[in-house]
Write a structure and sequence with these properties.
The complex is a heterodimer of chains A (124) and B (829). With 124 residues, chain A is mainly beta. Chain A has one helix and 13 strands. Chain A has a four-stranded antiparallel sheet. Chain A has a four-stranded antiparallel sheet with strand order 3-4-5-11, with no helix packed on it. In chain A, strand 1 and strand 2 form a beta hairpin. Chain A is globular and about 35 Å long. The model of chain A has no long low-confidence stretch (mean pLDDT 89). Among the domains of chain B are: 170 residues, FAD/NAD(P)-binding domain, CATH 3.50.50; 115 residues, FAD/NAD(P)-binding domain (3-Layer(bba) Sandwich), CATH 3.50.50; 53 residues, Arc Repressor Mutant, subunit A; 57 residues, no CATH class; 130 residues, 2-Layer Sandwich (Sulfite Reductase Hemoprotein, domain 1), CATH 3.30.413.10. Chain B is 31% helix and 21% strand. In chain B, the strands form eleven sheets. Chain B has a five-stranded parallel sheet with strand order 3-2-1-7-19. In chain B, strands 9-16-10-11-12 form a five-stranded parallel sheet. In chain B, helix 11 packs across helix 13 and helix 14 crosses helix 16. The longest helix of chain B has 18 residues. The radius of gyration of chain B is 32 Å and the shape is elongated. Classes of the chains: A mainly beta (124), B alpha/beta (829). At the A-B interface, strand 3, strand 4, strand 7, strand 8 and strand 9 of A face helix 16 and helix 17 of B.
Chain lengths: 124, 829
């Protein structure tokens, strides 16, 4: 399988092997000049991807944050000031005035993890 | 107006406080003469002097309180004469002061029965700090100690002998039972058997005829011709009002002592008042502090033209005598004509409770509680406020024992909760509504609970109930994922021997966990098992700094802090740190904890940096963890001309013992080699200061945003004892503190405070000292340097790459600026 593939409007790129990502934690993926945080939740076997930059103090740190849930909604806490963001839609859960995170779709094939970039995001 | 106060005891001080409170600092000139060399102190808690509280701790108000309120205070200068005609007093040192009003707060002295030989060496009375200091000097020579007097004061004195370490302590009581004025025969019997279990030997029905010995006491001879050998005797057989000055001035006194006063506390000379234990009202001397305060309030009000009278006082009292609860309230002894009694007696547990009910069955008249007096406040208020009893009055005792009875919440608003300071339930509730939501805040705002402390549990209940009524009360659970407190969770994890966050979540939680509960559980696991924190899938349950074993700094780089035990480092190691910092372009700074911090390390460089540090003999400093940080030291006796002991060696030993110890919050320590305290040990979670005879151990201090001095836990300890106490202290803290609670805050919230902690740590009152020590030893024995484990493990090393799909690349967004020829992190954007 090639390292990128396309479905309608979305480019899926190969991020890493499933075993590269720690259980219930995150890693940082380099995609071109972007940094993407990739998270794996073992209990629900769910994958999430967001921008790695925390919008609060513009720090490249979300992949190092602690994952968790807030009333069932998956979230990550930034290691700097513990702002938490929903991994479902990227909104900030601790501060309604904070910018939301860009989120990316994730899919796996066997032991390979792919992150989807839509074409308009590609320009961003 | 000018008021002169004779006597600077608790009641004399309270009078000044009341005047200041009522007038602001204007218009009244206050002059106080005290006989003792120190300002008024808390005589009620005198026995705590031996338990480590200093004279300063017992002080009611420091000297500058008097100056700041323009009160002239003459200490160590008793009045020798009152000239009532010219309204002038003359002091022993020759000071003369005129007065408009004179307050006699001369208190009482110890009543010494006329026994032959009371002037022998080794015979003491128990009244002032000076008396205590004399006892303190003598006690090390005494193996057997005896107290004459089995009343309240006598039992306090017996506790003092126990605290002084006198091996064998006897109590002699003339009456057939202990505390004859407060409790009945059966209660007395239960109390006696409890005290005997604690090692006190009690002799009732004994009348002392003579104190034996040539120059120094050797024993007592009783009227029944028996003899008791003793090396030390404390006479505490009652009090005698100090009325000699009043008598000489021609004021009316009672036939058995005491200055006669009316309802306004005026003596036979209307410009002279008598308050406290020297005053005789209606044929009675009130030997407790609460009525004394009430008298101070009444006299102050009357002088200022306000209406208030003193018409007797409830002598209800609750005490902890040598660890045994004893309480007596209302009318403890009723006759069959007055009503009926309900008695609960449990000789197995040593509990005796008696309540007296009116003939009609509706009102509580009084009672006695021995061994378990938790219900005291509730019963006292029920009796005082004439609350109608339940149809089956025994329920009020049984309910209280099951913890279901009302504890103050059902009382009327005007019920007096703090009888020492006359604070009503409404006043406390209003303070809480006004934002004073902690016990300390309420104490400060209302003064409730600041004197005898008996009402504190009730005050707490009222605070909780008031907050609940406002919808503010929150149960102290960890977070939405765990419906347990940290302490509960720790016990559960221990019992089930759970080793990973996932297991704990499976057993006791739900959801995915979060940034609150994950570090709590990780800390519990580390405190219990001390396993490598990045194993067993626990890496992602660590707080971010623990996960990368370094402190994240502005810009996303990390700082590196190797352990430098006690702050001692060789030149060779200093050079290594310099070389490594140079090689990896790190900013270096000396920390407050006597070590060196290297900033600006890329995440992916951390394993390589640590590999070099470990080769040079360094290990992790745990600066990233809620764990033991540093043990600072001064240079101590090896170099310092003042040093008493080798504080550096002891600090290194302590730091190496507790290195890596994880706790609810970070722990800092220090060791000072002498009282100059250059290591600032009293601002640490635990601090050690050398004394002539060993080490003094202080605990629960804090620097930071809310500085707090550490409190003395133990004195003159040898190395091993000191370490044993630290083991127990730290483990007890680890097991009971809430998450992210430093030792200072933990102690502030701990019911019973430092006295309780001292009992647990020094006297093993919970019977857990041995297991605490064993648990600590397990942690000490299983210590490993976390960084060494990472450096040696390729799988763990991989976790430190910034990009999982480009391991060789560093984070390109990291930016530095230059300052004073080093680098610094770029500013926040």
């Amino acid at each position: 399988m090639s390292s990128t593939l396309s479905t309608t409007g979305i480019t899926w790129f190969f991020a890493c092997k499933t075993t590269d990502v720690p259980a219930n934690g995150g890693v940082c993926i380099k995609y071109k000049e972007e940094q993407i945080a990739l998270f794996y939740f073992t209990r629900s076997d769910a994958w999430y991807a967001t921008q790695n930059l925390c919008p609060h103090r513009k720090q490249m740190a979300l992949s190092r944050g602690m994952t968790g849930s807030h009333q069932g909604e998956p979230k990550v806490a930034c290691p700097f000031h513990k702002k938490t963001f929903s991994l479902a839609d990227g909104r900030c859960l601790t501060d309604e005035h904070e910018c939301s995170l860009t989120t990316y779709p994730v899919r796996t094939e066997d032991d390979r993890v792919y992150i989807g970039i839509s074409e308009n995001e590609e320009a961003y | 107006m000018k008021i002169v106060v004779i006597g600077n005891g608790m009641v004399g001080y309270k009078f000044c406080e009341k005047i200041v409170e009522k007038t602001g600092d204007t218009g009244i000139e206050l002059v106080v003469f005290g006989e003792e060399p120190r300002p008024a102190y808390d005589r009620v808690h005198l026995s705590e002097f031996f338990a480590g509280r200093s004279a300063d701790d017992l002080t009611m108000a420091p000297l500058d309180w008097y100056t700041s309120h323009n009160i002239t205070l003459h200490l160590g200068d008793p009045i020798k004469e009152i000239d009532t005609l010219h309204k002038i007093v003359h002091s022993h040192q020759g000071i003369s002061e005129s007065y408009d009003f004179l307050i006699m707060a001369t208190g009482s002295s110890a009543f010494v029965p006329s026994i032959q030989g009371v002037d022998k060496k080794g015979v003491f009375i128990y009244r002032t700090i000076e008396d205590l200091e004399l006892m303190l000097d003598f006690a090390p020579k005494a193996r057997k100690g005896t107290v004459i007097g089995g009343g309240l004061l006598g039992l306090e004195a017996a506790k003092a002998l126990l605290d002084l370490g006198v091996a064998e302590t006897h109590i002699i009581e003339f009456a057939p039972r202990l505390m004859p004025r407060q409790i009945d025969d059966k209660g007395s019997f239960i109390l006696q058997s409890k005290l005997q279990k604690l090692g006190l030997q009690i002799h009732t029905n004994k009348n002392t005829r003579e104190i034996l010995g040539a120059d120094t006491i050797t024993g007592l001879q009783f009227t029944d011709d028996t003899i008791l050998d003793t090396d030390m005797l404390v006479i505490s057989a009652g009090i005698k009002p100090r009325d000699e000055l009043a008598k000489a001035a021609g004021l009316t006194t009672g036939p058995r002592g005491g200055i006669v006063v009316n309802e306004q506390l005026q003596t036979s000379d209307p410009s002279i008042y008598a308050i406290g234990e020297c005053a005789l009202y209606n044929g009675m001397i009130y030997g407790l502090v609460a009525p004394g305060y009430e008298m101070a309030e009444t006299a102050a009000s009357h002088i200022l033209g306000q209406h208030k009278s003193f018409t007797g006082f409830d002598m209800s009292t609750k005490l902890k005598l040598i660890g045994v609860d004893v309480a007596s309230f209302g009318n403890p002894f009723i006759t069959p004509e007055e009503g009926n009694s309900i008695v609960l007696e449990d000789s197995m547990k040593g509990v005796y409770q008696r309540i007296n009910i009116s003939t009609c069955g509706q009102y509580l008249l009084g009672g006695i509680l021995i061994g378990d007096a938790d219900a005291y406040n509730m019963l006292l208020q029920t009796s005082k406020n004439k609350v109608i009893l339940p149809p089956n009055p025994i329920d009020i005792l049984l309910g209280a024992r099951n913890g279901t009875a009302s504890t103050g919440i059902n009382l009327p608003d005007d019920a007096i909760i703090c009888s020492c300071e006359s604070i009503s339930k409404l006043a406390i509730a209003q303070a809480v509504e006004g934002g004073y939501e902690t016990l300390d805040a309420v104490k400060k705002c209302t003064k409730a609970g600041t004197c005898c402390g008996g009402c504190v549990p009730m005050v707490k209940d009222i605070i909780t109930a008031t907050m609940k009524a406002q919808g503010k009360y929150i149960r102290n659970v960890v977070c939405e994922h765990f419906a347990y407190s940290r302490q509960e969770l720790l016990d559960l994890v221990k019992v089930k021997a759970l080793k990973s966050f996932d297991e704990v979540l499976d057993h006791y939680g739900h959801g995915e966990g979060c940034e609150t509960c994950k570090p709590v559980v990780s800390s519990i696991l580390a405190s219990l098992w001390n396993e490598m924190i990045l194993d067993k899938g626990n890496d992602t349950a660590q707080d971010s700094n623990d996960r990368y074993l370094a402190n994240i700094q502005k810009g996303g780089t990390y700082s590196v802090v190797p352990r430098i035990p006690g702050g001692e480092i060789t030149p060779e190691k200093l050079i290594v740190i310099g070389q490594i910092a140079h090689k990896y372009h790190l900013y270096t700074k000396i920390t407050g904890g006597q070590r060196i911090d290297m900033f600006g390390a890329h995440l992916s460089d951390l394993p390589a940096i640590w590999e070099e540090l470990i080769i040079a003999g360094f290990e992790s400093g745990h600066a990233y963890g809620k764990a033991l940080r540093t043990v600072k030291s001064c240079v101590g006796s090896t170099w310092c001309r003042f040093g008493l002991h080798d504080s550096v060696s002891f600090a290194i030993r302590i730091e190496e013992r507790y290195r890596g110890l994880r706790a609810p919050h970070k722990i800092k320590s220090a060791v000072s080699g002498c009282i100059r305290e250059c290591a600032e040990a009293q601002s640490k979670d635990f601090g050690i200061i050398a004394t002539e005879r060993g080490w003094n151990l202080y605990v629960c201090g804090n620097g930071g945003s809310k500085p707090q001095h550490a409190l003395l836990l133990g004195t003159d300890l040898d190395d091993e004892t000191c370490i044993r106490y630290i083991d127990r202290f730290l483990m007890f803290y680890i097991k009971t503190a809430d998450p992210l609670t430093r030792t200072a805050t933990w102690l502030n919230k701990l019911e019973g405070g430092i006295d309780y902690l001292r009992n647990v740590v020094l006297h093993d009152s919970l019977g857990i000292a041995e297991s605490l020590e064993a648990e600590m030893q397990l942690l000490v024995d299983s210590y490993k340097c976390e960084w060494k484990e990472v450096v040696d493990n390729p799988q763990l090393r991989k976790r430190f790459n910034h990009f999982v799909n480009a391991p060789e690349e560093k984070d390109p967004t990291v930016k530095f600026e230059t300052m004073r020829s080093q680098k610094k992190a770029a500013e926040w954007k």
